[in-house]
Write a structure and sequence with these properties.
By secondary structure, the protein is mainly alpha-helical. The chain has two domains: 167 residues, Four Helix Bundle (Hemerythrin (Met), subunit A) (Up-down Bundle); 59 residues, no CATH class. The chain is 66% helix and 7% strand. The strands form two sheets. The chain has a two-stranded antiparallel sheet. A hairpin with a 4-residue loop joins strand 1 and strand 2. Helix 2 runs antiparallel to helix 9, helix 3 runs antiparallel to helix 7 and helix 7 runs antiparallel to helix 9. The termini are far apart. The C terminus is likely disordered.
């Protein structure tokens, strides 16, 4: 790095950073809403405790979900010009589209032969997503591959299309489900029907997984989709391998960190379930005993 301020001025930063931050805020809101839904549904004695955080978290989740979609749309439009191969792979667009590009809800294809045998397209939608217009050509994988060979030299510049395509669609699907779930909850609250809809509270408890899986799918699409580059157009992934670090050292390190994070994750989940089951009064008594110098009760 020779210029830190050039990093701050990177246009990719100003579409990616807000997307990540709003997604993190939305994830936190869904966590609070899901835990609150559990107490509102199962432990009715805590209804007065958890109604206010439930209402606030649902509002934040609804606003955050909509902002994630809007900012994600702006990020995709930026990628059309900054990393067109990633977007072509995310759409499994083998050839440059006509003037009016369609977007596929689902496509079944062979990534090796570039043959699509089933697709459900929405006409004009890809042009709208790319340019906010009914017309606009989007470059395809085949044409971009030829262009990159001419520009960067011999090589294969197509990322894993299957992973990029489906992770992108799962991210979009989960994002819209989050928005619908949160907005539906706000509607039920305003109508005073929330406690008459136990199924919704059960759905919201399971909805905790939506932002978590959605975030993972977003990062999968981001990291897999820009292969074979570390820095697009400047450094390939294969050139980023340090010559003195062996393959076995990389594998051992990766497995070691994986095991460590797995252990930490199991411990965290067990602790969360433990304190959630006992409720806020048990936690309050636990903290009070600590303040008074009394050994805390072991649950």
């Amino acid at each position: 790095m020779t210029n830190f301020f050039a990093v701050l001025g990177n246009p990719q930063l100003w579409v990616k950073f807000p997307h990540v931050e709003v997604a993190a805020l939305t994830t936190g809101a869904f966590f609070v809403a899901s835990i609150s839904a559990y107490f509102l549904l199962v432990k009715l004695e805590y209804r007065s405790w958890f109604t206010p955080p439930f209402q606030i978290s649902l509002l934040v989740a609804a606003i955050g979900s909509v902002l994630v979609i809007v900012i994600g749309h702006e990020q995709a439009q930026h990628l059309i010009t900054a990393q067109p191969m990633k977007m072509a792979a995310a759409e499994a667009l083998w050839h440059t589209s006509a003037l009016h590009a369609s977007w596929s809800i689902i496509s079944l294809f062979n990534p090796l032969t570039h043959h699509t045998w089933f697709s459900i397209p929405i006409p004009y939608m890809l042009s709208i997503l790319a340019y906010n217009s009914l017309s606009g050509r989007v470059m395809g994988i085949t044409e971009l591959q030829h262009l990159y060979i001419h520009r960067y030299g011999p090589g294969y510049y197509v990322p894993p299309v299957l992973v990029t395509y489906w992770s992108f669609r799962l991210m979009i699907l989960l994002g819209f489900l989050m928005a619908v779930l949160a907005i539906w909850g706000i509607f039920l609250m305003r109508k005073g029907r929330l406690f008459q809809r136990p199924r919704y509270l059960k759905l919201l408890m399971g909805g905790l997984a939506l932002p978590l899986v959605g975030n993972i799918m977003g990062w999968v699409m981001t990291e897999v989709g820009h292969q074979p580059w570390i820095v697009f157009g400047l450094q390939k992934t294969i050139d980023g391998v340090f010559p003195t670090v062996s393959m076995y050292a990389v594998i051992i390190t990766l497995v070691g960190f994986g095991i460590l994070y797995l252990i930490m994750g199991v411990i965290e989940v067990r602790l969360r379930f433990k304190f959630i089951r006992h409720g806020p009064e048990a936690e309050e008594a636990h903290l009070s005993a600590d303040r008074d110098g009394i050994p805390p009760t072991t649950f």
